[in-house]
Amino acid sequence: MDGDHALAEGALAAGCRFFAGYPITPSTETAERFAERCPEVGGLFIQMEDELASITANVGAVWGGQKVMTVTSGPGFSLMMETIGLACMMETPMVLADVQRGGPSTGLPTLTAQQDMMQARWGSHGDYRIIALVPDSPQECFDLAVEAFNLSETYRVPVFIMTDETVGHMHEKVVIPPAEEIRVVERNWYTGPKEDYRPYRFDGKTVAPMVKAGDGYRFHSTGLTHDERGYPTLTPEMNKKLVTHLIEKIESNADKIIRVEEDGLHGADVVVVSYGITSRIAIRAIQQARKAGLKVGLLRLITVWPFCETKIRNLARKVKAIVVPELNYGQIVLEVERCAAGQCKVISVNSCGGAVHDPEEILAAIKEGAK
Amino acid sequence: MSGADLAPEYTTDDEKFRKENPMADFLRMDRMPHIWCPGCGIGTVVTCFAEAIKAGSYDMDKIAVVSGIGCTGRVAGYVKFDSFHTTHGRAIPFATGLKLANPDLKVVVISGDGDLTSIGGNHLIHAARRNMDLMVICVNNFTYGMTGGQVTPTTPTDANASTTPTGNYETPFSLPFLADAAGATFVARWTALHAHNITQTFSKALKHKGFSFIEVIAPCTTLYQRRNKLGDGLDAMEYYKEDADIQHGADTRSLDISFQGSIAMGKFVERQKPTFLDAVNDHYAKVIGDSYQLYGKTPLEKEAEEKARLSATKEAKIRECGAND
Question: Could A44 and B83 be called an inter-chain contact, meaning their C-beta atoms sit closer than 8 Å?
Fold first, then answer.
């Protein structure tokens, strides 16, 4: 099964039964898979007129009670930014996969890249936080799709799966466990008295339980700055309360959200920080470097946003260098530099996308860092 | 007459006003007063909508209102239904998702001409093409009110707007023609003067299965009227009274509105066609056969499912469990 199909299967396993999408290479196969599987599982697929509509229909469907997903690639991701802001503001749980391709603009539709990593973090206007996960294999596309739904329900936030063309179109064995072995977080439905219901709770740690339209709560939700009732309240004070909550509900739970994979960090002189398809190339370079007698570790980011600040800060005090290969002109390396704060060398192995790295490029950077 | 004699019995910050107002069941009285200007037509549309709901004895818990951005976009924030104030132009796709996720709902989009026909124009024609089971009310005041009176796709040629300060040189949309051509199965137009007709049409549209589009020509006294030296709200009513004619069933190609020209009103289109969801279910029932589980369950099935859902959530909010497949 390829990564794109695995995303659709992961979504179905997580209980997603609604998918509004719009075709774009190299993500289309996920939409096709979902469309094919829907009638078997009581789900609904609708191909909307554009990406603006597809993501907005998904947000509407969440408030109608569904778990939802959509997929896209760079150009569509740009269009979706508008409603990503709305979803953050309305605290709407939803999952969006960006199967990244080379940009900017139409760029390289059929070739791989990791160029939307910062767009995922900053792409919509205003201050907010999202969660972004990066799979490195079709199996992880399945696993992280389930995980993405669980996180989105837990924190009422859009969760992005920032995969890429290579992983999306790569065919590998994918094990789908029996349903009872898959951990699924269900929506936290409100069950208290109607008159006490508040769609929001701005405590910066937790999120309010949800209801859906038609349940009789006759609630309101808006993209405007609002109070806990969801009513527009256009004051600097309320905006501070709201925005602080949107940020803090993620930041204060970052330790629970962040997942990384570590290999040989203890005693390493050089650490490669990598994510997605690039980490698989990095492993090859690390193996070669170890053969040459260098002490090299790998830190693979599974969660990219929120960023593993503490981890990088601690590493930077212990190692000579951190090497950051990525299929962009240097995006996540900026975060690594910020957290390393001059404590060690940070070497970017960048690329303009279109093809994965040659392991030799990463090896050269490791050798440079070990000097 | 003394000042005390002139004082209104109810004022907007009066508890009694909030409780006893005849619209109290329909409006979020804790959000009053609203932001609309004196003489604006949006309030009329909201009142007519409330009247139509009241006349039809609908379960108000099963009605959802979705708006976009702008003066009319504020409707969702004032009505006491499940209501959503979305982004500019996206009310229809939001409503589409809401309806498809919960087909029991009657989903009503109330928004303005700029929101629905300019930035949201693509969504309007595609929802009409699909015959999505939505009721769309477009308050057409020929201008962007919230941003200060700019030209819209419906501003009549020659009318003045802040971005066409010497007059509009573009050709406007005729909205009933647009909706009809795109596939809407119920199309009507009234002016804000014709409150009784608007209410009756809303009542019919609430019962209509499929995509209904109702345009209400309404005055923007602060911007459109003033900028074009057309007087106040009352002058607008006089214009509607003099120059608007009922032409039920008129050919939608004949419904253009020129600057201060005649306005044809009435119900132009009402036809039956499978809705999007009917088409989905009919199609799969045909190709898959009896084993196909219809999307969107019966109310009884839903109720049972709902009870199970709520009790399960109560017992354990996060549980280890699997999906159905």
Answer: no
Rounded to two decimals, the ipTM of the complex is 0.97
Domain that holds residue A282: 261-370
- Predicted confidence at residue B301, as pLDDT, reads 59
The beta-carbon neighbor of B321 closest among A41, A86, A184 is A184
Residues A209 and A200: their CA atoms lie apart, in Å, by: 8
Instruction: State the best of A17, A22, A46 to mutate against chain B, taking most chain B CBs within 10 Å.
Output: A46
pLDDT over 70 (residue A229)? yes
Q: What is the dihedral of CA B182, B188, B192, B195, to 10 degrees?
A: -150
Position A23 pLDDT exceeds 70: yes
**Which domain CATH number covers A19?**
3.40.50.970
B8 prior amide bond cis, ω within 30? no
* A-B Cβ pairs (cutoff 8 Å, strict): 192
Length of chain A: 371
Of A181, A213, A245, the one marking the end of a domain is A181
Same domain, A113 and A12: yes
Query: Closest to A14 (Cβ–Cβ): which among B62, B314, B323?
Result: B323
Three-state DSSP state, A184: strand
- Residues A29 and A131 both lie in one domain: yes
**Cα maximum dimension of chain B:** 78
Reduce the secondary structure of chain B to three states and give it as a string: CCHHHHCCCCCCCCHHHHHHCCCCCCECHHHCCCCCCCCCCHHHHHHHHHHHHHHCCCCHHHEEEEECCCCHHHHHHHECCEEEECCCCCHHHHHHHHHHHCCCCEEEEEEEHHHHHHHCHHHHHHHHHCCCCCEEEEEECCCECCCCCECCCCCCCCCCECCECCCCCCCCCCHHHHHHHHCCCEEEEEECCCHHHHHHHHHHHHHCCCCEEEEEECCCHHHHHHHCCCCCHHHHHHHHHHHEEECCCCCHHHCCCCCCCCEEEEEEEECCCCCHHHHHHHHHHHHHCCCCCCCCCCHHHHHHHHHHHHHHHHHCCCEECCCCC
Name the one residue in this structure whose structure tokens are 């907005």.
A56
Is the pLDDT confidence value at B309 over 90?
Answer: no
Q: Does residue B302 carry a pLDDT above 90?
A: no
Please state the domain count of chain A: 2
Three-class DSSP category at A234? coil
pTM equals 0.94
Domain borders along chain B are 34-273, 277-315
Report chain A's mean pLDDT, rounded to a whole number. Answer: 97
Q: Is residue A228 part of a domain?
A: no
Contacts of B98 (CB under 8 A, 6+ apart): A60, A61, A63, A64, A213, B64, B66, B84, B105, B107
Beta bridge partners of B264: B245
Distance from CA of A107 to the nearest CA of B (A): 25
For the residues B168-187, what does the mean pLDDT come to? 98
C-alpha A37/C-alpha B161 separation (Å) is 51
Residue B137 token pair:
């009310």
Beta-ladder partners of A271: A297, A322
Per CB-CB distance under 8 Å, the chain B contacts of A187 are 313
CATH 3.30.450.40 fits B34-273, yes or no: no
Distance CA B67, CA B2 (A): 44
Q: Could you tell me if residue A143 is inside a domain? A: yes
**DSSP-assigned letter for residue A194:** G
Residue B315 has pLDDT above 60, yes or no: no
